[in-house]
Specification:
Elements lengths: L2 E4 L1 H9 L8 E5 L4 H4 L7 E4 L5 E5 L2 E7 L4 H5 L21 E5 L5 E6 L2 H7 L1 E2 L9 H15 L2 E2 L1 H14 L1 H7 L1
Helix pairs in contact: 5-6, 5-7, 6-7
């Protein structure tokens, strides 16, 4: 299997260091699909995720694991290629737009990013890929991440949060939180 660690775990490790315990680690398997992955991970499987991958628990660590070709955005948008290099283009936020290939022995392979390093340098959280399945939750999560990192909001993200608050209502944001 060729795993790629993706998103918020990499961000938190890069920005906050190892003192920050992750909520979960997103792992994309580049050369297997969800149907091939699940039978091999049954002993750690807690549940299937809403997007078809598996949520695993190993000790105190939680993992969301899915096959690259089963990535939600790749299945819906023909402009994206089912490849590790396009994976960072699929994150909602630019501060999560990074994927790190893990080689045998735990060595780091290729690092793919899409605006990640500029966002970190600017200490700003902004939209990367707006489409998602739960707009109120995405807005609240984005605000929470900006607060956690002590980063400012980019113009696009601030507009998105205001638009969601206006269209969905504040109670929807409170419920999502």
């Amino acid at each position: 299997w060729t795993p790629v660690i993706f998103g918020g775990f990499v961000r938190d490790l890069y920005v906050l260091g190892s003192r920050n315990y992750p909520r979960d680690v997103d792992v994309v398997i580049t050369n297997k699909n969800n149907l091939e992955i699940e039978p091999n991970l049954q002993s750690w499987m807690v549940r299937r995720t809403s997007l078809g991958g598996v949520h695993l628990q190993k000790g105190t660590w939680n993992f969301d694991v899915w096959g690259l070709e089963d990535t939600w955005a790749f299945q819906r948008h023909p402009t994206l290629f089912s490849s590790p290099s396009d994976l960072p283009k699929t994150t909602f936020l630019d501060v999560e737009a990074i994927a790190v290939e893990i080689l045998a022995g735990g060595r780091i392979g290729q690092i793919y990013q899409h605006g990640f390093f500029s966002a970190i340098e600017a200490k700003r959280v902004d939209l990367n890929w707006e489409e998602n399945g739960n707009r109120p939750l995405a807005a609240v999560r984005a605000l929470s991440i900006a607060l956690k990192l002590n980063f400012t909001l980019g113009h696009r993200l601030a507009g998105y949060v205001l638009e969601v608050a206006n269209s969905e209502g504040i109670p929807a944001l409170v419920d999502a939180q």
